[in-house]
Write the structure tokens for this entry.
Amino acid sequence: MTLTLNEKFIGNSCSEAQIAALAPEAENAFRRVLERTGRGADFLGWVDLPVKFDREEFARIKAAAQKIRGMCDIFVVLGIGGSYLGARAAVEFVRSPLYNALPHDGPDIYFAGNTISPSALCELLTICKGKDICVNVISKSGTTTETAVAFRVFRRLLVEKYGEQGARERIFATTDKARGTLKASSDREGYQTFVIPDDVGGRYSVLTAVGLLPIAVAGISIDDMMQGAADARAAYQTPDIRANTAMRYAAIRQLMYRGGKKVEMLVGYDPYLQMTAEWWKQLFGESEGKENKGLLPHSVIYTTDLHSMGQYLQQGERLMFETVLQVNDQDHAYKIPDDPTAGDGLDYLCGRELADVNHTAMLGTLFAHSDGDVPNLVIEVSERSAYSFGYLVYFFEMACACSGYMLGVNPFDQPGVESYKKNMFALLGKPGYEELRQTLSERMK
Ligand code: PA5
């Protein structure tokens, strides 16, 4: 597997000389990550995770996945943010966004507890009727409302269906090793538990049990995924910006930001990249969006979104650059069929590989958008696989940490996420929030 940056379409907003000028700063950021001397250094467990993970727990994850694959029709994964996006991204990247509808061994996989929408919950409950179910509840804090509410519902469903003991055998909890309500209730009930290490924050946790258990249940090789991450770690050990692609990507992002860009648009040309983009958005958005700073991470899937966002990208406010995630080896060959009677004007495409047409659409867009003054950086990965996914995860995590330090923020905290929670708790009448409830009630008058 290779991961390369193609800078042909980046325009003059980011010259080699500018990157070289930023190299000492990038190197300084990179050293703070490796030497654990930057802000938030207590959350750098992900740096060595691909080579220093708990082998015993890894084996338990595989065994649990095997068991789950044999005992249910539906596997419900409850979690939000960093406790869900990575696993879903991996399932869609390696398998398919249509995973449940396509032929597969093992259960269908649904992600819930990532919204408070009654429609989403009730629709899933309808799907679950008459089916055998296992649940993986994932929460580092063990107190996240969205996940806890969904878990209450699914726990009750399992108890009604299988009895208390039967339910226990079908609930798998991924949480802190000691703290939180979920840990306490798991110990009390005797659920099988998996640990989210203290030094790995939610959005950096896909290579822990948070991601590994659901990914293994989807029949994806977590050995290959960890190997991809380990090889990326080995590739990004050097502080030389000419060789360390993660550092270079971080430097390019910062050049763009300092040059006035406000938005980084992650672009994929395959729908299986959509959830990877959602994971990436959380990673960069939560890591950098603070102290009134940071590029806004946005995403599109082309060519679909060229028919909705294309006009803006080509001619709207020049506030963004695009980062195209290009997967080189297409896993599906499909030739556009010959049909002389169709009369659809497509004879010139007859016999052409759909992948070539998609690639050509990408080239046309790269020319058009860069001509339209939207710099385009292309991240090329060689293939669609578990290995590539692991490699990409580590690449983005390292780039994000370096970029955050270059921006001058702590890339490992998320203080802003608490604000809505406090207000919601106060308005819902949670004990301990009485004063804030009073203040907000006054403001609503
Ligand atoms: O990155 C983060 O820390 C957040 O997105 C969390 O993952 C998310 O809020 C879920 O938290 P928890 O795992 O504690 O339920």
